Amino acid sequence: MTSPRATPATPGEPPPGSAAPEAAIEVRDLTFAWPGKPPLLRIDRFSVARGERVFLRGPSGSGKSTLLGLVGGVLQPASGSVRLLGTEISGLSASARDRFRGEHLGFVFQMFNLIPYLGVLQNVMLPVLFSPSRARRIGAPVELRAEAVRLLSALGLSSPAMLESEVTQLSIGQQQRVAAARALLGRPGIIVADEPTSSLDHDARENFLRLLMNECRAQGTTLLFVSHDTSLGGLFDRVDSLADLNEARLSSAEVA
Amino acid sequence: MAPILGLALRSIWNRRLTAMLTIAAIAISVALLLGVQKLRTAAKDGFANTVSGVDLIVGARSGQLNLLLYSVFRVGDATSNVSWASYRRIAQHPDVAWTIPISLGDSYRGFRVMGTTNDYFQHYRFAATRELRFAAGKQFSDLYDAVLGADVARQLGLALGAPLVIAHGVGKVSFANHEDKPFRVAGILARTGTPVDRTVHVGLEAITAIHADWQGGTPAPRGARLSAEQARKLDLTPDSITAFMVGMRSKVMTFTMQRAINEYRQEPLLAILPGVALSQLWNLVGIADTALMIVAGFVVLAGLLGMLTAILTSLNERRREMAILRSVGAQPRHIFTLLIAEAGTLAACGVLAGIALTYAIVAVARPLLESRFGIFLEIGGLTRYDFGLLGAIIGAAFLMGALPAWRGYRNTLSDGLTIRV
Fold first, then answer.
1. Is the full-model pTM beyond 0.90?
2. Which of A112, A121, A237, B38 has the greatest count of CB atoms below 10 A from its CB?
């Protein structure tokens, strides 16, 4: 189910009138297959404009997580290109892709988002361990903690006691917000959220999404939100269906 | 690298119970290895230090180890004696500077009694050049004087002037004692860390005196016995002795003298070089020593395998952790480094704890080893060899850590940002 204003004329293309000169995410002629398996993904074109918040829906097993792996630069396409924030990441070396991911992408997963042996603030500040440029974007090292606290507060976690608590003592909803704060730290260009609300009840889900979107809007961050739960689509600028984008599925369906 | 090490430490702390057990297993195995190493060094040093300054040891012809064992270590018995005439003839040889006659065969409450002369206290050396020193009293001045080794005096609580009755034979329990000729403690030797500490020394003539009225290994009937005072009036020159030690005027003549004694026609004698015999004996004992080291090595291996198991079993449950690290920009090599740093940290902690445990055990066991076995354990620093062993353990831990690290690395590559468990 998609909101009327969110449905574009062509799947994967930005809405008419989008002013973004260069897309935040641009996938072209992409194919991907696991070794010894038929092609899982064949996407002719999929793009997300800068600052846009896109909901990508698709049932389990449709290749959503694989697409995120390709966008995150962890997987390499068999052919085609993945361009993020103007950089052709499919042409980069593995370590350069890792660095790019650390600097420009933030991830929120479905569950188990946090490192259990780090505290709340340490989990939020984790990205700067691997990305000095992300740390530099925040400013001086002393500002790092302040920014982490600010993000947590913006996401509804302002209790000082909570900041000092073990992450394993937090509720799932609180853990998701800590993960969102971590993804947003250092103003990455793109946030990728992989079914982050599937463990939350309806109210918590909507509350979490609004907080996340507000912060994305405030930071000008692009959001690619992947889920099989279509009820959330109305909150996004655009809704795409992976089933419509993925020609590999279309072909196999036609053959069947 | 520093952030990865920080993460490794926090990760270990998060699994502190398992980590503590792993560290304890490594520490115990390291302590065992170091302990065995310290013990064998101490035993070897003690062994080599047992006798020095003696050029030849001469006894009845048997084997050189047998002669060394009974004359120096007071272990076992001589197969035959050396006649007094042969002894005197060799002792009077112009190339011989001094001799120490030894007469064995009796005991006092489990300690061997050795008949000798005051030359023993003058010429015997141990630990290269150290002389026998009196902690109390002095050498023999009366026929029935006894000089005790340090352990004998301490363990039996004997002080100067204390009476003692020597038992016939060397068994712990004796049915025939020389109670009619009691001795008096005239001197107590300072500790040497050699079998001297566990020996009761009496004069050579005293051995003749206490056996003067004995026939065929049994005492004379009560009426035919000689009193201690009567024995004093006898010619107490022995007929034979068990062995004797020889100091040459010139070391160059040692081999010539050794050959001459070994070819001595009047009596089948054997002259041995103590250093050579000690080395041969150590080689024999060294087999057990090597076996002990191999066992200790396997215990270390078991400790490291425990660590490997602990890390490997935690790998699967940590795949999401790896995916999170990947999502924030960690490269597979970071994951590899993280896991191998954990193995290295556990091993390093285990080794440090093992060193501390070794010193604690040495401090506690030292007096016991010293009093029971005459083994001196030095609480000195670690030797280069010890450092080599410890380095090898940490190196082995890194090698073993490479297995889970490699699996973690492979998981990371295949999992990417999603986990397929």
1. no
2. B38
